[in-house]
Every structure is written in C-alpha cells, then in structure tokens.
Amino acid sequence: MSIHFYKYQGAGNDFVMIDNRQNVINHHNPQLISQLCNRRFGIGGDGLMCLENEAGYDFKMVYYNADGQPSSMCGNGGRCIVAFAKYLGIINTETNFLAVDGPHYAKISASGDWVSLQMIDVDTITTDNDAYVLDTGSPHYIKLVDGLKDKDVYTDGYAIRNNNTYREKGININFVEPDADGYFVRTYERGVEDETFACGTGVTAVALAMAKHNQQTGHINTPIKVLGGNMNIRFDYDGHKYTGIFLEGPAVKVFDGEITL
Fold it and tell me: Which residue range(s) make up the domain with 39?
C-alpha cells in the first residue's frame, strides 16, 4: 500500500503530514508511526500528523510523537497543520480547528508561511526549586541558565525528564537564557526523547513563566530564538491569568512524496 505524505517544518520542528479526510491510513499503530518518523529507515520527523474531518470545525488535528504514541498539544505542529490546510484549500487566512486540548483559532499570512496560533489560557504556574512548571497544552519545566549555547541539553534534559517526579508522565525540559529583548531557548522533548530545534508549547511556556519571573503584567510581546529560527509569543497577563496567548512563527512545506507501507 502506498500513501502520499507531506513534510512540513516550523522553526526546525519537522513533521510528517497526511491528509486523512478519506481515512487513507489507520494511525492507531505505534510501530508504523515510529517507522515513518525514523530518520534512517523512514521519512523522518519529530512527529506525525493526520488532518481529519470534524463536524463544526474546519478540520481535526491528530498528532503522534516520533515514538508512535499519542501526544498532548504540539504548538509548532498546530501551526504547520494550519499551513497544510491552506495548501489543501480547506481554509483561506483564518481557521478554527480541533486539537487534543480543545478548539484553536489561527490566522495565516497571505503567503502561507507565517502562522499565528491561539493557545489555551493558563492560570497556574508552580515551582520546582528554582524552575517553573506549567501546562500550555503540554507540560513544561522552565529553568533559567547561563551559557546555554554550550549546554549539554540532551544529558541534562534527560536527567530531569526521567527523575522521580516526572518519569511516569514525562515533561518537556526548557532551558532559557536572556537574549537581546527576548530569550534564547533550547528544549528536550518527551516522546521525541531528544533535543529538538524548536518546541511551540515550550516557547509559549517560557514566555509566560518569564512574565511571572519578571513581575510583568499587561499586554506582553516576547521574541524567542530557538535553534531553528525566530518565534514570537504575545499575550495578556493580569497577574493571575494568561489570556489571548498567540504563538507565532514560520510554517513551511519542505517536500511531499509517496511511501510504501
């Protein structure tokens, strides 16, 4: 059996995309998904997404991590699937779609390569010693560090993700350093179990946590640099709740092709 696939990337976070409106693939198959995402024996990607029909919405986003397991919300994946929907002619410049954490609104540029994705509101940030912990659709651990450019993110991220507190459910580890008028972020992602070039829910969590850390309120705009490029997060914070959160950045079709399953 052959299926047509597409490859998209958002700030270096890359995904295998399948138009599954006609149920061309049964994605409840962890071994198949991990094979498709394998960079040596498959297409290669940080995860796999199926675009499916959903009553009341433009489409539904079904996302799996590279290990083949169902994932919580993926921000960069959400931006990429919006670009994919525009490419397929499902949407024009705005959309409302359904993801695992609920409905999302997004707006895409006329050129189709810059997406602003509204994320869920956040009202709780806790601490773990000197780190911040919060959920922006996926759980995140945020730690300010020095010398991030040279940090061993894999080793240090792996150790935190697999400690007694987080081993069972997993957590994404984000290391943060101030950079110009924003921040530089590197992320170890659960499910991928490695450092990725970007993490959308991660940079969103960083922006919110840094607003709390710096005691900022009002309308806040936070530029963030990741290994895969530049992103932006804008939101409102009244000192208690974060609302109107938008994750913004590039979403680009890299190539498409056929693969035999």
Answer: 2-119+251-260
